Amino acid sequence: MTFLFWPILLLFVLLSMLLTFLILSQEPKQSGLGDGLGGGGADFSTMGGTAGGLHRLTIVLGIIWGLTALALNVIPRA
User: Fold this and answer.
1) Is residue 35 part of a domain?
2) What is the domain count for the chain?
3) pTM of this structure
4) Is residue 54 included in any domain, yes or no?
5) For a Cys staple, 39 with which of 22, 29, 34, 64, CB 3.0–4.6 Å?
6) Residues 6+ apart with CB under 8 A from 31
């Protein structure tokens, strides 16, 4: 089972880079701390179009990233 460690590690590193890119490419939902404290009208409607797709993809890749992190802790290293 030790042969699985290195491919999963490679997948983990690739997912980390992809997640970093996806998170940085998304539009911010708020204008800063002022919106969080009631300074602006926050729109809590569902996202559509490309922003919604990026948001869902980020969530799915984040879950896969977490599962690969757990797998790396369980699988013995060669």
Assistant:
1) no
2) 1
3) 0.70
4) yes
5) 34
6) 40
